[in-house]
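for the record, two folds in this file. i put them one after another cuz i was lazy. first one right below, seq on top, structure tokens after. the second one comes after a little note so u can tell where it starts
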Amino acid sequence: MLIIHKISELKSQLLRERNLGHTIGLVPTMGALHDGHASLVKRSVNENDITVVSIFLNPTQFNDKKDLERYPRTLEADCKLLEKCGAQIAFAPSVEEIYPEPDTRMFSYPPTDSVMEGAMRPGHFNGVCQIVSKLFEYTNPDRAYFGEKDYQQIAVIKRMADDLGFKMDIISCPVIREKSGLAMSSRNTLLTDKERAIAANIYKVLKESTTLGLDVKQTHDFVVEQINSVDGLEVQYFSIVDGETLIDIPSWQSADSIVGCITVFCGSKPIRLIDHIRYK
């Protein structure tokens, strides 16, 4: 596996692959890779001749500097995992390589990027669009792979790709969960064993909420009350939304696709965890 740090080298390598008629898959990551990332990489390896995995902790999508500082960094272990999964290229640039000068571009795709995470983390999705658009430009992939744990992020990236005229297929891949049901996340490594056990209640409650036959408001209140009743968990928001527009829905008849998106603080630090569940 090639480990590339320079944009020019990445473009040159991929041009050679293109000239050979090879298809290219891209898996954008911020590193601290786990089995969820591995599932994306393996799918790309199966569906493309060349798989590029970016490992870049993007500062422009963090509106909390402390969150950025404590985000895990495990480049050596990441590259070992990628090689085991069959990736051909790991792209691990420096911040200076990606942002030799500030990126002043502004992206706006309401309501997709203004609700939920967009409301709670001002500027977050603008930073996501900045880095993902750069990666799309550098690699010009046939397919790009994203995990559905970040459900809203995929919706925003699809809007951005359409807006900028990128032609690749954007592939959404299922959430990979730990045995407890906790959605795999790089942030999970920041949890103690006790906190990780507590965090498993998030998905447990979400799953239970799909079986109760309650209306939308009752379902919302049940999830929030049940999770908040667990010592060490605090819901930041829980939104039951149209799976396409991400707008809150008043009833189960309001949309053909309905998703519940949640963010929960876990532990004393606290660690911010996200998840979602499909109701329809």
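(here's the note) second protein begins now
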Amino acid sequence: MVVLIAIDGPSGAGKGTVARTLATQLKFRHVDTGAMYRAVAWRAEHLGVDLADGLAVAGVAERAVFDLDGRVGIDGHDVTSAIRTTAMDAAAATVARHPDVRRVLVARQRDMGRAGGVVMEGRDIGTVVFPEAPVKIYLDASPDERARRRALDTAHGAGQAGAEPDRVDQVAQALEARDLSDRTRAASPLTLAPDAVYIDTTGVSIDEVVAKVLDLVANRRLS
């Protein structure tokens, strides 16, 4: 039985929707590791901790009590909506660059995945957190497609007017900055694992992507 599915990729590639759909269909637990970094950044700011102080932020991460079942909670605070803002995008990128923070959260993510039955999404799941995962997926999409999706995503502050050109341009610039941060950080940079299956989701429906991953899961179970 396949016990863990690792899904990596940049923002706007479809990781969250695909991971949640897979978890529902397979009756697995869904773990959004990006939400953990966002939650730690939010909590550190609210505690008055300097996000540039890696050791101090790592302390926040080590003491944190997470609730990731459907919503995102940290230390009793529901931050599901609060962490999905442009400001928190930047804060999470800062936090994620600290090796001490990553050490703490990677250990906690490994604890979450060891029992199996998990779909875990992030940027270093197949390369660092669970390099032995039997199914590794790397989702990607064109920069334009990713910016359009994020601009339309109400969970990330999109308005009712939809993906207006100015907002798409702003989102594209923010995504470009986040990509650069993720790919150039010294600790666990975003990269394609050698044995991961690369899927370009540009112009591809969620159902088609999920079907491809389910085929991979079925093949792993038979092998």
